[in-house]
Amino acid sequence: MEISSKENTHFFSNNTILPVDRSSFKSESSTSKEKQSCCGGIKIFLGALSFVYFAKALSGSYLKSTITQIERRFDIPSSLVGVIDGSFEIGNLLIIILVSYFGAKLHRPRIIGAGCLIMSAGTFLIAMPQFFMGRYRYERFPSTINSTVSISPCLQDKSQTPLSALEKSQAKINAGCEKEAGSSMWIYVLLGNLLRGIGETPIQPLGITYIDDYAVEENAALYIGCVQTVAIIGPIFGFLLGSLCAKLYVDIGFVDLDSVTISPKDVQWVGAWWLGYLIAGVISVLAGIPFWFLPKHLPKPESRKDSSTSSEQSKFIIEENKDPRKSHQQQAKLAEMAKFLPSLKNLLGNPVYILYLCASIIQFNSLIGMVTYKPKYIEQQYGQTSSKTNFVIGLINIPAVAFGIFSGGLIMKKFRIGVLGAAKLSLGSSFFGYLLLLSLFAMGCENSDVAGLTVSYQGAKPMTDYEQALFSECNSGCSCSKNDWDPICGENGVTYVSACLAGCQASNGSGKNTVFFNCSCVGTFESSQSSSAVVGPCQKGNECPKMFLYFLVISVITSYTLSVGGTPGYILLLRCIKPHLKSFALGIYTLAIRVLAGIPAPVYFGVAIDTTCLKWGSKRCGGRGACRLYDSSALRYVYLGLTLVLGTVSIFFSVAVLWVLRKRSSPQDETLSANGERGAYGTKSRKDNFVNSDQLIQSTYWPEKETRL
């Protein structure tokens, strides 16, 4: 009886357990379905966000690739181009606080979609001046523009020129002045870039937090890492697009290309800069479309429904509709506002944070200025075309930067490097990077021989007053203007500012095939065998191509070396502050970098580069235009020197950071060692560090990372 009763009890107990098993099975099944739908939604959002990151990185890098094209097209100095470049940061700063605060309350995907539309509108606006300001006019002697009238370049007497030709030429100039007198079309480029900055603002903060809120916790870091990887690919395509458009003439499709008398090697050449902006604008529009169909909320993963690790923004969204908690939430807000000043005081009282912030600001000044004007430096120093310059940067430098960032993170993980090690790695990266940059001083090209500017008409060194040196006895009988820039290359290998200043008496042919004869200044030059010349400037010296190759090798190694320190530096920033101040500290850091580096660096780098100009162009209606010829040696010393000086100052601040960290950590380590707890503490410290590294991966983005070369 006892056995049978036990069996019955066992039987009934089994019967009662079975329904529980079925219900648990059903709950597990529903959970898995929910997880699948959640994963499907977040992966769609991930793909859309990755495409947006690609679009914004592409348009940003394309702007860098068109700096020289914009300068020539609008006849503006480098300093003004720097203001245009910095307007993106200004636009970003205008609404960053509003977007960050109110974005969490609203429909985040649609805000990102609206941002994409604004970004595309700004990109289209940048290209608009091309369709309103008429065809591009470059300085050329009339006989080289397929004219049937034979005109002597050296106008000894203006009466020898047919009146009809002079009148037509003067009428065109006057018409151009009437059209351009009240217009500064570069303002549209500035406003377009400002709009780009406004539109880009919600993408990062709202996109990253959306992934963090609705992704499975262990997958969030991986997803955000994928987004940042795609952001690295964008600049590669941006510079390659810039290379392609720079090969095409600015007015392609509007003029007969056979009538164009300049080549891409000419300093007056302007590529189809506007075409790339139209392409980038279309890509931005396409990137924003999916966000208008994504939901405001996704199903939360089961593991995160009751988790305390969910983001503050998602908590705020969930709690705001619960009436009983409204008053409590308002009290919490007031309490947080009251803590603002103590938090700021706490942050500014952290010597490691302040020193690292100063080091970062100065280093980003160095890097942003260097990256912005790198295409111009390569073009002017090594005589390369805009197309080749952008191709080299996109295909060689950007991948080196991406590999450097990846290597820095890999080193940190492989060797389990802590705060002190991160500071050392960041310092070492900067030190060796700028040391390599120092070698570039020896890899420059000499000035081209330009009569009256870099050499005298007799072949000797020029006089101190460059403008007066343009005139000599050999062209004293010609009616020439010192403001013209229509270079020709004499058979003696010397470039002359114009055929008139070369004293040429006759010409044959038209367009690019024009040949000038009986050039009195070419014949008087030392060891000159002939007095003829052809259209266009002479090529740089024979050693210049070799120097350019050396420059590329060192530049790639330098880009990689400097980028290795990016991730360790970011880890140092996150771990040197209290956990509850991290968001605030990162906000202050980003704001400081944008305001004190992103905006001013392109401007004062441009001002410094303008001081090295030997020959300024002239606008059609008077006034100074874009620079036509730079002093190669002065440009090298100013560009590299300014970069190195700023980099050296940042290294001193990094040394100070390391010194403070050593001073703080040494007594603690000695105490722990004496108590025999060092091993346990080290394990715990490493564990805490890697918990923090999850937050690092979610935020491993810093200003201008994509184009940090």
Question: Overview of this structure, please?
Answer:
- Belongs to the organo anion transporter (TC 2.A.60) family.
- One of its GO terms (molecular function) is sodium-independent organic anion transmembrane transporter activity.
- It is a single chain.
- This protein has helices at 2-65, 67-73, 78-102, 108-127, 129-132, 163-180, 186-200, 203-214, 217-247, 273-288, 312-319, 326-338, 340-348, 351-372, 374-382, 386-414, 419-438, 466-469, 520-524, 544-564, 566-575, 582-598, 600-610, 632-675, 678-698; strands spanning 488-490, 495-496, 506-508, 515-517, 533-535, 613-618, 624-630.
- Helix 1 runs parallel beside helix 9 (217-247) and helix 16 packs parallel to helix 20.
- The termini are far apart.
- The chain folds into 3 domains: 39-139 and 184-300, Growth Hormone, Chain: A, CATH 1.20.1250.20; 341-445 and 543-609 and 643-663, Growth Hormone, Chain: A (Up-down Bundle); 447-539, no CATH class.
- It contains 25 helices and 7 strands.
Mean pLDDT: 78
Q: At the first level of CATH, what is the class of the largest domain?
A: Mainly Alpha
Instruction: Enter the CATH topology name of the largest domain.
Output: Growth Hormone, Chain: A
How many structural domains are formed by the residues?
Answer: 3
Strand line-up across the major sheet: 2-1-5-4-3
Uncertain spans, ≥5 residues at pLDDT below 50? 1-38, 156-172, 307-324, 667-709
Give the overall silhouette.
globular
Instruction: Determine the number of helices (DSSP H or I, runs of at least 4 residues).
Output: 25
Number of strands: 7
Secondary structure: helix percent: 55-70%
Largest sheet: 5 strands, antiparallel
CATH architecture of the largest domain: Up-down Bundle
**Global structural class:** mainly alpha
Note the beta-strand portion.
Answer: under 5%
Radius of gyration: 32 Å
Compute the separation of the termini in Å. Answer: 87 Å
The CATH superfamily of the largest domain bears the name: MFS general substrate transporter like domains
